[in-house]
Each structure stands twice: as C-alpha cells, then as structure tokens.
Specification:
Blueprint: E1 2-6, H1 7-13, E2 24-28, H2 38-45, E3 64-66, H3 73-76, E4 81-85, E5 96-101, E6 106-111, E7 117-123, E8 126-133, E9 136-142, E10 148-153, E11 167-172, E12 178-183, H4 213-216, E13 219-220, E14 230-238, E15 246-254, E16 263-270, H5 282-285, E17 286-290, E18 306-312, E19 317-324, E20 332-338, E21 349-351, E22 367-369, E23 372-373, E24 380-382, E25 388-390, E26 394-398, E27 415-416, E28 421-423, E29 434-439, E30 442-446, E31 473-481, E32 484-497, E33 502-510, E34 519-523
Parallel strand pairs: 3-4, 17-23
Antiparallel strand pairs: 1-2, 4-5, 5-6, 6-7, 7-8, 9-10, 10-11, 11-12, 13-20, 14-19, 14-21, 15-16, 15-20, 16-17, 18-19, 18-22, 24-25, 26-28, 26-34, 27-28, 29-30, 30-32, 31-32, 32-33
C-alpha cells in the first residue's frame, strides 16, 4: 500500500531530503493484511513500533532508553525520537520523552510519573532551555454544595515532588466565589481543605471583600514635587442625610522634608450642632488629634499640617481639608469608618479621591480647627533640667518669649495660652487662666493653685543654655492664695567658707527668665 505524505511534514520529521520537486513524496511500506481496515491501521500505529508506520517517523533512530549511566537525558534531547527514562544522577524525574524537530533546532517534552510536563529546546545544536516546568491543576477536595475544589501546582526544575514547591488552592464558597490559599511546601496533605491551624503553611489570600469598605477607599495624596503649600480635600459630609452622631473616623499621615517629621492625625467628625457652627461647637463636629508628641518638628509651625472645614449653608455640606506644607509629598488618607447611605440611596459621606489632585489656593471660607494632642503623650513632660515628671493636673509653662516662640519652650504637647504662658492637656485658651509679668523676674498666674500633695513636684528652676554644674537661677513660689500664684525668679549668690570647705547659696536680685529657658508650675487646674 502506498501512503501519500506532504513533503513539509516529511522534512520536519525525517533526516531525508525530498527526492524531487513534487509537492508530495510517495513512500512504500509493507502492505497491511488484506482484511485490514482504517481501524486496524490505528491499532497498528498504537503498537510498539507504530511510529514506523506513518511517514518514516523517526526512521533509523528508533525508541531508546536514556539515563542511569547510558545515554544522558540531556544528550538524548539532541536526537529525534521517542525514549524511556531511567533516572540518572542529574536526570529529571521522568518516565518518557519525545524529541522532534529538524537537524539543528529541536524541542523535547518529558513526562513524569505524576503526569507533569517539562520542556527542552536546542537551537543550532546548542541547548537553549532545559527543565522548563509547566503548571498544572488537579481536583482538591470539595467546597460548599458539592462544588469541586482545585489545586494549581507550580513545580520547577528540581522540585518535581509536590512537597517541594508552593501551590494555590481554590475552594468554592456558598455565594459562588472561592477562597484561595497559598500553600507552601509544608502543606503536604492532598484532596482536602487545608487542615486546622495551617495558617502558616497555607494562609488564605485576602480579597477586597475581606476589607471593610472605608479601607478600600484610602489613598496616597500627590507624590509630585509640591513647591508651595497645598490643600487636600479629605471628605464632604452631607448634613441633610440621616445618620446623626459619629459619621466619619480616619487617619491622615503627613510630614514633609521641611518639617523633618512625620505625624499621624486622628480625624473624627459628626453633624451634631453643624447647623450652628461656631468656636464653641466646632469641637463637637470636627475633632483632630495628633497621636504623636509634636515637639520634634524643625523650623516653625508653618511646616506642620493644619485642618479646616468649609460649611456650605446652601446645600448643607461640610467639607474637610488638610493643608500640607511644601515638600510634603506622599501624605496618606486612611478612612476607618463612615456612615452608610441614607434610605434614599444618597451618600452621607463622600470621600475624596487622590486623582482629583490638591488645591494650590486656600478654599474660600475655610475655618481652621485647633488640633488636640493625645493625652498619652502629655501626662509626662520633660523639665528644662532634663528630668521627666508626671503631671496629675496641668502644667503651666512660663517664659518671656512664648508669644514669639516656635519650638522652645512651647513643646511636648504644650500650647500657647497667652503672651507669657503655655499649658498642656488641652487647657490652652480655655479662658480659665492668665499669666502676666508684674516686674523684672516676677510673674502672676490667675485662675489656678499649686498642687497640694506634698510628695508631688511644685516648680522647676530655669536653666541657662550650655550651663553645667552649679546653676545660678532659682524659681520660688512667693504666694498661692485666692486662685492666684505669684512666682519669682532670682539669681543665686554663692559664698565659699574656706575654713569649712562649704558653699552656701542665697537668693539675689530678681532677673527675667532667660530667652532659651522657662519655668514649669504644677497646678490643680482641672
């Protein structure tokens, strides 16, 4: 019987060249039995030597065995033909292979005992790829409602064993979705849900459904070079929609090259009293708390983030902004919760998207909000002599230059209260106290008293910058009555008793607090 084989197929799978210019080449083979039918032909091709029955497939090369000290698998892939694999020292864990191609360029497939495939390639007689593993999937237990799970195995060269590489497990859920587990080599169990406590070797991958809705809307603000202060729109609160009370909570993280610091601010907002916003009610509507001690910033407060709002009476919206300084790239807004939409479907809170970009002009009508400081950072304060002490009430810091001070002595959760004093724990500008300078070295504080418990510290002495050893200034409480404290700052005079080898200190003339120092007074202000 004569079979007609296209010359292109013959050239691909045979070392013979075409004997003529005919598009087809006739190859003579022993005739099949007279009773043979097409099905019989297929049976013959499936025999051990079936590869010889069609087009001279691998004629002259035959089926061989490679590996285990005979022909190396890597040498075998340079020759066309089928071959079994007996694993040698450096041979892949395979059972059979097939190499095909022309005289110079060949490709090979090797299959192992688990049905995995590896590919090889030789270009112009030189190996260009070897042991390239192909991912494969298998059934893996059952999920909800009898839906089959699956495992996607990702083997690689040298890790043909399933326990030596990582995989992805997919298990259906009742809602039609699937959980995905990232299984490491330690997840060696097959055909079942990852065992209890396998969170280390087979943790479940999170999806956006696992995150609360506000976190999915967090964003990083402009990372371009900000050459001037900018205003970032954080969110807009619609006060006419239901859900009164706490309507927004989130974080804003900012810092900047010029400030040389990073701060995290807690933002809380609701719409109680929003229709009558004023200095007294704004803290009930919008509260900004700096969660870190703000004393380590550099230069001046203009480089710190400020927060403000614009209330639009025509549409009853409250829009909250953050003013960030120049070179404050990468400020990050992280919402934690916000009120859901009303029954009408109208959103109560609309979050700003980073793609909208910052504003380079101050919003019209903006009102800035004074920032609070975390109470955990100002119940302990450092005194000017280096000691850190606990405050049970409030500490009033007195100096001659607080009105013009930027960092010192207003620091460590203190806020300026008037021209001479600053107060911690949120009491600044509460209207409860005032400080005045009565004369050189004499200061009066109205609205508070010294702490009464004897074991608590009362007052700290000012120090002179760069001073060491014996100091020459002392602060004393001269009177404390009728909610009024008078303190005096005086120079110390030292007398040496040469015969006894002692030094005696005595109060001298009144003197103003040095510009680089201050006096802390521990009070009962509540």
């Amino acid at each position: 019987m004569n079979w007609i084989v296209p010359s292109t197929l013959l050239a691909l799978f045979s070392n013979r060249s075409s004997a003529s210019n005919s598009s087809d080449v006739r190859i003579n083979h022993p005739p099949l039995p007279a009773t043979a039918a097409p099905d019989t032909l297929r049976t013959e091709i499936g025999k051990e030597n079936g590869f010889e029955l069609v087009g001279g497939f691998f004629t002259g090369e035959g089926k061989q065995v490679a590996g285990s000290g005979t022909t190396s698998v890597f040498d075998r892939v340079k020759q066309r033909g089928q071959f079994d694999i007996v694993q040698g020292v450096s041979d892949p864990k395979g059972i059979a292979g097939l190499t095909f191609g022309g005289p110079d360029n060949r490709g090979a497939l090797i299959i192992d005992e688990r049905g995995r495939l590896q590919t090889y390639a030789t270009k112009e007689g030189k190996p260009t790829a070897a042991r390239v593993a192909i991912p494969f999937s298998e059934p893996y237990g059952q999920g909800i409602a009898g839906w089959n799970g699956s495992i996607l195995r990702l083997p690689f060269s040298g890790a043909e064993d399933d326990t030596l590489h990582s995989s992805l497990i997919f298990l259906p859920k009742a809602d039609g979705s699937a959980d995905m587990y990232i299984a490491g080599p330690g997840q060696y169990t097959d055909y079942g849900t990852p065992y209890a406590g396998s969170g280390v070797v087979a943790p479940r991958a999170l999806t956006d459904k696992d995150l609360i809705a506000p976190l999915r809307k967090g964003n990083v603000q402009s990372t371009t070079w900000l050459s001037q202060p900018s205003w970032v729109t954080l969110f807009t609160l619609k006060t006419g929609v239901r859900n009164s009370g706490p309507n927004f909570t989130g974080f804003f993280i900012s810092g900047g090259t010029l400030a040389e610091s990073i701060y995290t601010y807690l933002i809380q907002c609701n719409d109680i009293f929003v229709s009558s916003l004023n200095a007294a009610t704004v803290k009930h509507v919008l509260r900004i708390t700096n969660l870190r001690d703000p004393s380590d910033y550099r230069h001046d407060t203009a480089n710190l983030t400020q927060f403000g709002y614009v209330y639009n009476t025509s549409d009853n919206t409250l829009t909250v902004y953050a003013k960030i300084a120049a070179r404050n790239e990468g400020a990050t807004f992280i919402p934690l919760r916000y009120a859901e939409a009303g029954n009408s479907g109208e959103e109560k809170v609309v979050l700003h998207q980073a793609g909208d970009g910052p504003l380079n002009r101050e919003p019209e009508g903006i009102v800035y909000v004074e920032e609070e400081n975390s109470l955990t950072s100002n119940t302990y304060i450092p005194l000017n002599d280096g000691r850190v002490v606990k405050t049970s009430g409030a500490v009033i810091r007195i100096s001659d230059s607080i009105a013009a001070a930027t960092r010192s002595p207003v620091q460590d959760a203190f806020k300026q209260n008037d021209d001479f004093s600053a107060v911690n724990r949120g009491y600044a500008q509460s209207g409860k106290l005032t400080a005045t300078k009565e004369a050189t070295g004499k200061y009066k504080i109205i609205g508070t008293s010294i702490v009464t418990k004897k074991s608590l510290w009362k007052i700290s002495n000012p120090v002179i910058a760069g001073g060491a050893g014996i100091q020459n200034l002392a602060a004393t409480i001269e009177s404390d009555s009728y909610n009024t404290i008078v303190i005096g700052v005086r120079a110390l005079k030292y007398t040496l008793n040469g015969s006894e080898g002692t030094i005696t200190a005595a109060l001298g003339d009144y003197t103003d607090i040095p510009a680089d120092s201050w006096v802390d007074i521990h009070t009962t202000l509540q």
